[in-house]
Amino acid sequence: MSVREWVPDDPTDRRAWEGTLDALIQEHRFTIAVVFPAVGALSLIASAEWAALPDVLAFNPLFVLMGVLVMRSPLVVGMLPVVDRRAALGVAALAAYSYAIETVGITTGWPYGFFEYGVSLGPMIGGVPLALPVFFLPLVANAYLLCLLLLGDLADRALPRLLSVIALVLLMDVVLDPGAVALGFWDYGGGAFYGVPWSNYQGWVLSATVAVVVLDATFDREALAARIDTCAFALDDMVSFVLLWGGINAVYGNWLPVVVAAGIGAGLLRTDRFDAGMVPWLGDGGESDRGVAADRR
């Protein structure tokens, strides 16, 4: 399809744009959630290990950011219909928090432990990547969404919701940080867990708690739960996460993170939606597939 064919007749109609974006993501689910992380893992490993790779390609920040943004697109489009002014303020607040806590972290070592970036992730401001929210927000948002989906009625209770999101964020960082350290993205100067200090995980308890409090206060949780229950691709960014960082950890022999990544993948499979257009030969990726997934739930 041409770009023109994707533009709604009324370019000011938000709902029309949401429907168009839904269709666009649904049509390209496999490419976004499987091909992109596979290519990303290969390119990052080549950047770290292949000395013959031209400097312009090795950890090219534009290439990295564009790939990350594409993989994030199912999450963004999945949440978009329930983002009102209050929710947008919540997202902005979490973005501001990510900058603040990262700045404190690289300056004082609290709460994650002392670390320094070894790879450029784009423009930096005060030693913090300008694109930091692109990396931080999806980590906590994906955990929040998956817990809403898997907890069922328990998701209505504040304490189980909070504890489950904290646990899942910690598990995701058990996968992410060892892989990032192995690639040289950042360096803690050593740590007991694949070069990562335990203080890092204590810091993520704080950040996950802040994220849950803000998301609870600013999003309509019932509307959000209803949206992710019917949106087949809403958690595809987590599929990308498992494939990308699980693959990188496997290459570096970080087997415990690989097992944890597989466990997160098993949790995703429990949502019973990844035959709904994820793999082209299992369905046409259209409304009929989403209906089958919804019927099974």
Automatic annotation (TrEMBL):
Pfam families in the cross-refs: Caroten_synth
Chain segments annotated as transmembrane: 30-52, 58-80, 87-110, 130-151, 163-186, 254-271
Keyword Lipid metabolism annotated: no
Database matches in InterPro entries: BABR_hydratase, CruF, CruF-like
EC number: 4.2.1.161
Keyword flag Transmembrane: yes
Keywords: Lyase, Membrane, Transmembrane, Transmembrane helix
Protein name: Bisanhydrobacterioruberin hydratase
Organism: Halolamina litorea
Gene: cruF
